[in-house]
Amino acid sequence: MSSDIHGSPEAPTPDTASLDATQREIPSWSDPLVEGATRPVGGPLGTHAAVGRHWFWTPLRVCLLLAILGLTAGWFGKAACIQQYVTDDGGVELDWRSGRQYVAMCYSDIVPLYTAERLDDPGTFPYATSWVENQGTEHEQVRYMEYPVLSGLFQWVNAKLTHAWTGAAQAGWLPAALPVAVYFNITAFFLSVAWLVTVWAVARTARRRVWDAAIVAVSPLVVVHAFTNFDALATAAAATGLLAWSRSRPVLAGVLFGIGAATKLYPLFLLGPLLVLCLRAGRMRAWSAAAGTTALTWTIINLPFMLFLREGWSEFFRLNTQRDMDPDSLYNVISYFTGWQGFDGPLAPGEAPAVLNTVSGALFLALCAGIAYVGLSAPRRPRVAQLCFLVVAAFLLTNKVWSPQYSLWLVPLAVLALPRWRLLLGWMVIDALVWAPRMFYYLGTENKGLPEGWFLGTVVVRDIVVVLLCVVVLREIYRPSRDPVRVAGIDDPAGGVLDGVADSVVIRRRRGPDRREARRDQSLARRNSMSAA
């Protein structure tokens, strides 16, 4: 069977593991950035190079090695925040003196949450243990674990492992360190495993473009934010869920989405694009299976806490409802630069920002409706990753909170939706660099930090770049011939039951060159599918 570097038109191969080297996309041949990066080591891959024959170093394993190097750099970036010092009375404390966590730009939520969530107490259990904040003031409030169930249990298990480690260290069996440092390192280890799973899932989902997973592995956002919070757990669940969907296993995909939703709510958003695409393709049974198992999985995980620890379980939802706009949201940008205070103004303790919540939710729903229209009216059915990226980006842009680590949600989706190395790495560098002005803004101008306007300026730049990525994705949806994934008649590597299927429900638009081009692409995809069968 003849083949070229862009794939095998006669019979698309279903699994990367069975691809010949010449059937994989070679980034040093197709991407100018990668081609330029290879020049110091001899240039792009030779036409007659013997590749794909090494007994160990497959593309996937190389990507995993790159991810380990990136995660190691990320750990060193946070290591300054787990240093200790000896106090005047001979005690040992965490060294966050003089705003070290901001000056060294090593801040991580993991460190303060160890004590803030009462995880340092061996007798606590998430959602059962409560405490009082701001006692004796008008802001007095009873608090519980503020994370979804699996994220809370993840923290609790790591705390238990920390208590076991410190007990063994006191007995002389293990090296001694501050418990919070031990807790951070244990947490970082499991978050690293989660990100490696994310890289693996992206590589398997990308199939012939397996090398695109290297962008996930070396992303500057991973170096900066892999250990800022616990979001790598959710990215692993979402990425493996998409992998299961790409293998036409909607029930397994639903289980993984449900696990992800019990860790962070954003994997639930992926069901929206799948609904639109399944409606267009007439594959609603597959979507129903995925959505049903998602709901069932989430319910099974949450039900014991809903029944027996309801007040603690609802803390996550209560706080997100009452939370005001964060400094890094577009609403705060508008408020700062225009002076407009029309969202809600000062809030009383425990009061929810009703106007802000309504505006944020309405804007997100409006954008979702627009994305649904795109999915149903595009000349060729969009790829799964393209719509998933647009939905998650829409949520981040319209949400009242864009915590810095939330950008990790976009990394695997962006790589699958828009595998253009130079464009993606440019966005990731800009997004990662927002961390520096953010830290110096939190340091405060009284401590020689940055004014708020400087920080918000970088937020605007970050948001503009994300919008530009969305525009490029939309352009490739309406011009499928410009999509680097859809070459040689390939339809959707992540499509699963949708891959190569004829449309059933389509919103008709005015016919034009893009529609004629799409019909040619669909005809070629059907011929290839019949040939493969």
Automatic annotation (TrEMBL):
Keywords: Cell membrane, Membrane, Transferase, Transmembrane, Transmembrane helix
Subcellular location, record wording: Cell membrane
GO MF annotations in UniProt: hexosyltransferase activity
Annotated membrane topology: Multi-pass membrane protein
Composition bias, Basic and acidic residues: 514-524
GO CC terms: plasma membrane
Coiled-coil stretches: none
InterPro entries listed in its UniProt record: GT87 (IPR018584), UCP010361 (IPR016570)
Record-annotated membrane-spanning stretches: 62-86, 182-203, 215-245, 251-279, 286-309, 354-376, 422-441, 453-474
Pfam family, one: GT87
Keyword Transmembrane: yes
Record region (Disordered): 1-20, 511-533
Protein family (similarity comment): Belongs to the glycosyltransferase 87 family.
Protein name: Putative integral membrane protein
